[in-house]
What we know:
This protein is α/β, with parallel strands linked by helices. Helices cover 31% and strands 23% of the residues. It is built from 15 helices and 17 strands. The strands form two sheets. Strands 1, 2, 3, 4, 5, 14, 15, 16 and 17 form a nine-stranded mixed beta sheet that branches. The chain has an eight-stranded parallel beta sheet with strand order 6-7-8-9-10-11-12-13. Helix 6 links the parallel strand 9 and strand 10 (249-253). The longest helix is centred in the N-terminal third of the chain and has 17 residues, at 117-133. The protein starts with a strand and ends with a helix.
Amino acid sequence: MRCEYAWLPDGVAADVLIEIRDGRIARVATGAPTPLSIDAGLSRRRISENSPLDRPASMDDRGGEAAEWRPGLTIPGFANAHSHAFHRALRGRTHAGRGDFWTWRDQMYTVARALDPDSYYRLARAVYGEMALSGITAVGEFHYLHHGVGGTPYADPNAMGHALIAAAKDAGLRITLLDTLYLTASVDGKPLEGPQLRFGDGDALRWAERVDAIEDQPHLVVGAAIHSVRAVPTAQLPTVAAWAGGRPLHAHVSEQVAENEACLAEHGRTPTQVLADFGAVHETFSAVHATHLTHSDIALLSGSYACFCPTTERDLGDGIGPARTLADAGARLTLGSDSHAVIDFFEESRALELNERLATQRRGHFTPAELRDAATGHTSLGWPDAGKITVGMRADLVTVSLDSVRTAGIEPEGVLFAAGAADVTHVVAGGREIVRDGRHTAIDVPRELREAIRCLF
């Protein structure tokens, strides 16, 4: 394909030829002339006026096969580092009254009661389709809805996980299944009850035995997650950390002040300190939310990942986490859409900067390139060969219109501050086109979302 603009590792370039072979980027060439003399100086007005230049065919500079013209800016595919697919059913249903994270959680449990492997597959397929439309090419699914009602395992103990894996494949995404250990209802060891029973495996050894049965696939990495320090007793933490080894290991960390207070009362340590004490904090660890951290917590996370989910964190009233301070300490930032109150990685990206402005009353904390890197954190999900437009990397390519009412007149580097998910025109994931002209190539996403959610209520 020949891109009007492409955001390469060292910046935005004009007129970029990208060749794809076997799902990977085989060649990137900039500034090569086309038969129609389309170059960086061609005015945007001429491209957008329904002329023959709108989608010109061009030959590569070796005289090879014609390359499809992609007007707009092409960027690496986004990596959604934190997802709870079934939470998407709550969008627009949790805002009628007051409350906080804990009252929202009760509403989430209502959805958790209703799902089985078939309905979860249908919902997740539609949710992952919505992610594809927004430019996401890989998802980290923080998966704890494991068993049947009352905690009874399905005949296939991983039926719910396999539903998610199949849904991602059908939507065209890679998935990192962050299979989650969830054993207790509170940090002091209160047992699971009600809908929480579906989450539990009894202990970490039985969890590990179940997860060992899930095999990696070309579109799948199996990782691990510790739901939180309130849901996993300290004695169980070393088993999870050892199982993960070099695989991705994620955990909710200090999302709520109440979580910190309970952990300090029980252990005399913060959640980050407890996780570090038992071997969970290392270079493949992701602290999700990381909202209410101490200075010592930040130091402990300096070699790990910190995953911010700004649209969910503000939807739930969590607070604003210390993103810039973590980055300055050496933590690598990633982004997630979490509860899917919104699925829009342009919004998640700029919120990382805008939240810092709110907290500090100053502007200019992150460069556009830093925001892009946070939004394309595939390495945190076990896909180190994705997230950049360079030779040898997976061909994950997202083209964003620069002619919409949101983006008309902007400089390409400003796309993360101006565009929205609706401005994504084309998505290629691993060399396969999954979105064309703003529509998913295999899924009627609005219809499937509507039908999958309607049956739950």
